[in-house]
Amino acid sequence: MKFPKTHTLKEIAELIGSTYVGAEDFPVEGMNEIHVVTPGDIVFVDHPKYYDKALESAATVVLINKEVDCPEGKALLVSEDPFRDFNTLTRHFMPFVSASALIAPTASIGHDTQIQPGAFIGNNVTIGSNCVIHANVSIYDHCVIGDNVTIHSGTVLGADAFYYKNRPEGYDKLLSGGRVVIQDNVDLGALCTIDKGVTGDTTIMKGTKIDNQVHIGHDTVIGERCLIASQTGIAGCVVMGNQVTVWGQVGITSGITIGDKTVISAKAGVSKSLEGGKHYFGIPADEFRKKYKEIASIRMIPALMEQLKQQNK
Question: Which residues are catalytic?
Answer without folding.
Answer: 218
